[in-house]
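User: Hi! Is it possible to get a structure for several chains at once, not just one? Here's what I have:
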Amino acid sequence: MKSWRLIVFALVAFAQLAVPASMIWKRERTLREGRVWKFRTAPVDPVDAFRGRYIALEFEAEGQEITPPPNAKFYQPVFVTLKNNAEGFAEIDQVSPAQPEGDEFVEAQVVGKTISLPFDKYWVTERDAPAAEAAYRAQTRREKRNAFVTVRVFRGDAALEQLYLDGVPLGEYLRANPATK
Amino acid sequence: MRAADRSGIRWLLSELPELVAGGVLSAEAAEALKKHYSDTTPDTPPRVGFILSAILGSLLIGAGVVLLVAHNWEFLSRPVRCAIAFAPLALTQVFSIFVLLRRNESAPWRESAAILNVAAIGTAIALVSQTYQIQGEFSRFILVWMLLGIPIVYLLQTSAGLSAYLIGAAVWLTSSKVADFSGPKPAALWFWPLLFLGLPAFVAMLRRNRNGYGVLFATTALAIAASFGLAGIDGMGAQSFWRCSFAGFWSLVYLVGVSSFKDWRPTRPHPFVGVGWIGILSLTIFLSFKDSWRTHQWQNAVYLIPRHYPDAAAVAVQIAWVLAALLLGAYTLWREDRARFNLAPAAFAPVVLIAWGIAKRTGNPLIPSLLLNLFGLGLGVFTLVRGVRAGRIFEANLGMLIVAALALARFFDSDFEFLVRGIAFIAVGLGFLVTNLVVFKRRARA
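Assistant: Yes, the chains can be modeled jointly so their relative placement is included. Here is the combined structure:
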């Protein structure tokens, strides 16, 4: 009587551990083997950018007009391949409903004639949050665009690696510019 | 003895001296009664409070851990942060095994272990997501969390866990991303299989201790979740059918309170009876307005047999609720003592069904609203008479209240003169006074 409960519980416990573990494993593989792309952030409405503990990111590539697959609905999942533009930032190359060959593609969603990339939040620590907010706002204004993120891409998974402001990682930037609070 | 009876016993024991003084009971009989009941009462310690405090304590600890973790410690490396994410999960798993082996008979232990474990699952996933900047939809996170938590509900037989699961299903439904900006959302149908996953646990709980507070919580959660589910599928299928499905829903809530929990407490009805009354009366008043039957969607309403997947399934779920209300109503009418329960409110489901049928056929809002007015009036008068006959002040006044509310509602959509309105108000007021007078007199005579 008790033994079957224990066996079932062991299975459940394993599943409970396996879910976060598999998330880590998949992400670690992407970070290890994925190719790095730089996505330049798009100018944002400063009020809207910061939601508590993460920065809501928008990218220039998301404003790029694409040809969606025929009869594509809103939020339909698609596969996106990337290319670098002249300045070395990522742009959307091909959009297709079927999985492309190779390892370098991202799963994203169609929103009308644009693409919504699967990464739009950058979590920061509670203590850094206000400073990060101010810094991100300062660096994504229309006249001064010096913010980009690095993303590693591997077989559909896109791992947000680091947010760069003025060419340096967020943490370093905040240490170098403490006055931005 | 059921813990639920204790308030009744206390009442009985407090009445004993008066009964002896009045010569109703002999002193020996009173002593025997006192002895009988005081012998049995100490066996059931006041456990509800203890269980509640155990649940509350576990919830607070769980929330505290989540907050600590959500601070997102910057100086910790990724592996350390992952270890922190897994630690609470592993600890609560060990704790659950201990409870399964050693404390399986104790509800507070089981509830606490389950809550802590379920909280730890969510924490682990959320912290790993944060550490690795893993993005994802909130609804998906909820779904994974629920599916990993539901086996715990079965293993540890926890009513708090089951309630959380059922509410989680409603949260999942409201947070899932829409396929399109408007129009049907077939994903909403998956809510029902999710709900069904929790049902066997609910039935088992019902069998163990039907009149306990745990079952009350779970039943309430089930009702709340189901109402969200019904609202979620309304966009599909017959778009005007929500009137019937919600009439079935409220009738069912009322009937469940009346017939499934008839031994709830000796002195008061099950909470669902009250909630059912409120739901049925509110919807009756709403549907008694002519405007509530005026809709542009009659033409779009699906014909009797919708042929395609989301619509057909949605309509099937809606009809199932109406059918369940009709069947349980018929069963209660057949099996239960009609003098003991007021079954008239349960006629709501068939009445609305007929009204909807007429509205759909004719497209005329007058007859269905008239039908609902008649139902409301009949329900009010029936309840009033029932209350007066049995000398129950509360029931008699409830009947009057229904009539008064209906009268008040009619003033909003009709343009009677002030004279007529004044006379009607005076009549209703007089009705209240006379009713109470009659009931009190009858009581005095009895």
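The radius of gyration of chain A is 19 Å. The mean pLDDT of chain A is 80.

User: Great, thank you!
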